[in-house]
Amino acid sequence: MLAPRTLNGLLDLAEFPTESILDSARAMAKFSLFDWLVVARAGAGEPVSRIVRDLVAEEGGKPVASVVGLAGKLPARAAALANGAISHALDYDDTHFAHVGHPSAAVLPAALALGEARDASAAQVLDALLIGAEASIRIGIVLGRPHYERGFHQTATAGAFGATVASARMLGLTREETRQALSLVATRASGLKSQFGSMGKPFNAGIAASNGVEAAALAARGFVSCDDGVGGPQGFIDAHVDEVFEDTAWSVPRGVFLFEDIKHKLHACCHGVHAAIEALAEAQRAHRFDAESVASVTIRTNPRWLKVCDLKRPRTGLEAKFSYNMVTAMTLHGVDTASDAVYTDALCQNPELIAVRSTVTVVGDEAISDTGAVVRIETRAGETVDVGHDLSVRLPAETLEKGLRAKAAALVGAGSAEKLWETVASLPTRSARDLGDILRGLR
Amino acid sequence: MLAPRTLNGLLDLAEFPTESILDSARAMAKFSLFDWLVVARAGAGEPVSRIVRDLVAEEGGKPVASVVGLAGKLPARAAALANGAISHALDYDDTHFAHVGHPSAAVLPAALALGEARDASAAQVLDALLIGAEASIRIGIVLGRPHYERGFHQTATAGAFGATVASARMLGLTREETRQALSLVATRASGLKSQFGSMGKPFNAGIAASNGVEAAALAARGFVSCDDGVGGPQGFIDAHVDEVFEDTAWSVPRGVFLFEDIKHKLHACCHGVHAAIEALAEAQRAHRFDAESVASVTIRTNPRWLKVCDLKRPRTGLEAKFSYNMVTAMTLHGVDTASDAVYTDALCQNPELIAVRSTVTVVGDEAISDTGAVVRIETRAGETVDVGHDLSVRLPAETLEKGLRAKAAALVGAGSAEKLWETVASLPTRSARDLGDILRGLR
Questions:
Q1: B200 — contact with chain A (CB < 8 Å)?
Q2: Strand pairing partners for A95?
Q3: pTM for this prediction
Q4: Any CB–CB contact under 8 A between A84 and chain B?
Q5: What ipTM describes this predicted complex?
Q6: Which of A38, A160, A26, A113 is CA-nearest to residue A408?
Q7: What are the chain B neighbours of A80 within 8 Å (beta carbons)?
C-alpha cells in the first residue's frame, strides 16, 4: 500500500525552521529530555543495559559520543545503540498513543550522539529531539494499528525514521541527502513486538537510534539509495502494512506538533493502571479519607485493559505493576507508586495492602476511552466518592513538572533529581558536550 | 503464519557435526570462498564499498577483524558490515535460486570476522560459511516467493539468520545461547528489494552479516530474547510473510546440503542471460563457426526474463548486461563476458557487434524453466544448430573450477587470481587470520 506523501512530509519536517517552533512544543520536549535523563539513570544498571554497554565498550572506537554510565566515549552509532536500550530498559520513558510507542528513547540517543560529535548546542539537540520525535509520530500514525497488530513495534520501526530526521538535522544534511538517508533507513528499520517481556524490547529502541545515525552518516558521505524507500513501491510502508493512514498523519496544520500530546509515565507500572491511580489520588486529596476507612472501591476502565493489567492477587513485584487491585491499595496507603523500588514480592504479602486490595472490583466499560478511568470509593462511614481521570487531557505545565520531579526524586534520589532538573532548566547555556558529561556521570 | 519447526531446524544445523559434512558440500563451499574473494577484490573500489569502508574506518575500534582493502583492523560487527557490502557491490557473487538470494555475501563476512577475532582455523570459517549459508537457504525457502513478492530481499532477511548461525558456530555458543541469538536477530533482520539498482542492494548483504555478528555476540554475553522470535507468534516469519513453505525447507534428509545447488555467476551480466551465453558458447565450440557466418539467432527463454533482460538496443555498458541481443553478439565474437570491464558504452557502438545483435530474436516460452535457454543458430551456409543449457544442472567440479578461475583472471588479473586460488587450495594449513591478511591486501 503506497504512501507517496510521507517522504515529502518527513523532509518538510526535517527542514522545519528553528524560529517557528512553538514555545509550548519546546517546553514539552524539555520535559521529555529531563524525564529521559532520569529513566536512563535509573535503568543504567539493568542487565540489558550492562550487556549492550559492555559490547560497544569492548568494541571501542573514536571517542566522540557518551554512553549512560560509561567513563569513556565511543563512536556515535555505538553510543546511540547503547543509550536507546538503556533509556527504555525500565519501560518508564515517554509514550505517544497515536504513534503507538515511545518516541524519545529512539530519537534522543541519535540527536545526543551526533550533537556531541559535532559540538552542537544543547538547544539544537532539544530541537532535533522534538522534530525527530514528531517525524516518528507521523510515520507511526501512517503505519497505524495494522502495523502494530501485524507484529511490528513502532518504537523501533517508526522510531528509525524519526532518529534519521534528528540525525539529518544534527549533521546539517541537505534535503536531497536527507531523502537518501530516509530511503536508506527504510531497508534497515526493524523491530518486533514478540520481544515484549524480554531484553529485546529495550534493545529495539537502541537499534532505531543507531539505524538513524548510520543512515544519516552514510548519506552525508554520498550514499545513494532508491527514489522513495519510505512510501514508494515496495518501500518500507508497502512491505510492512496492508492499510495506511496517510491523511490522518499529514492533514495536521503546519507548525502544530503532535508531540505536545506525549505522555510521561508518573508511576512505575503498566500504563493501563495510571488513570485509575490519578483518579484515586485526586479523590483522596479532595476528600481526605485514609485507607482504613475504605469499604470498597470500584474501577471502571476500557475493556482492553482487562487482558493487560487486571491481576487480582499479584504475588511478585512485577505482577503488582499489572494489578488494578494492588496499585489501588498502594495509592490509598500512600506507597510511592512512582518508585520502581517499591514493587517487591514482599509488598504483595503486606496484610494492610491485601485488606484494601480485596475490596476492589474492576469493571470493563466500552464508554470509557483507553486512556481513562472512573473510580467509586465507598467509605465505612457510608460516603460515596466518584472521580474520573483521562490521561489524554494535557496536564498544566506546573502539574506535569511537579509530577516529573517527584518521579525523578523517587527514582534517582532528591539530590540527583535536582541536579538533572537544573541542567535542563539551564539548557540555553549548555552544549551537547555538557549533556554528554552528564550521561557519563549517570552511574 | 507460524513456522514452529524452523527455530529447531536452524538450531540443529548450527550444531551439525563437522565430521559429518559431505566432501561434495565442502568442495562447493571452497568454490564459494574463492569466488567471494575474487568478487570482493573486484568490487573493493566501487563507490558503495568506499563509502561504507570509510564510515567504519573512521569509527575505528578494537582491531580484531579485517576489511577488504583496508590496512588496519576493526571490530567484528563493523568488518562484517563493510565486507558484506563490498562483496555484493558488483552483484557478481554466488546465488541460490531456492533461497531467492545471495548466501555467501551475507554469511561469509560474519564467519570471517569472528573467525579472525577468535583465531579460528580457515577450515572452521569454511564450515561456518557452509552451515550458515545452508541456514539462510532453508529459512529463505520457508519465507519463499511471497516474502520476496511482498518487497523483502532474502539476501538480507534470511541472510541475517544464516549469518547468526555462522557467528554462533564461530563463538562456540551453546544451543540455548544460539536460540537467544536467533530470537534476537529476528527483531533486527531487515532488507527491501526497493533498494535494487542502488547502493542499498549491496548494503543489504552487509547489514545481514553485521546483524548476525551482533546477535551472537550479545547472546554470548547473556542477552535474553523471547522464546521463539523466528517462527513463533509475531515472530519474524509471522510478521513478514502470509504463506510459508516450512515442509519444503525441513523435509530434506539430514546431512544433505541444499548449498550444493549454489550457482556461481561466470558472466558479469544479469543472471537471466547466462543460460543463453552457455548454450551459444557450447554451440560454437561444437560446430566451430565464426560470428560473421551467422545468419540469425533465436533464443527461447522463460517469459519472466523478457521483463528483466531483453533490451534490444543497449546504449550503455550497464544496459548491455541486460540484453540477450548484445551478449549474444559478444559471445559469438569471443568478447570475454566474464570481465566486468568489457561492458562499456563504446562496446554498444561496435559495428561488428551491432551486426550480430540485429540478427537475434528472443522468444518467451513457458515450457522453459527460469534457469534454462534454448538457442537456434542458422548460418549463412544454411546450417542449423540447436543447443539448450540449464543452469540448474550441476557442473562437473573441473568445469566449475575452470570457469571460476577464468572469471577470476578476467576480474582481478591472472597473477592475483592464481594467488587466491592457491590460498583456497591450501586451506587446511591456513588460519582465519591468514584470510584476514589476504583481505587487507585486496587493494
A1: yes
A2: A263
A3: 0.96
A4: no
A5: 0.95
A6: A38
A7: none
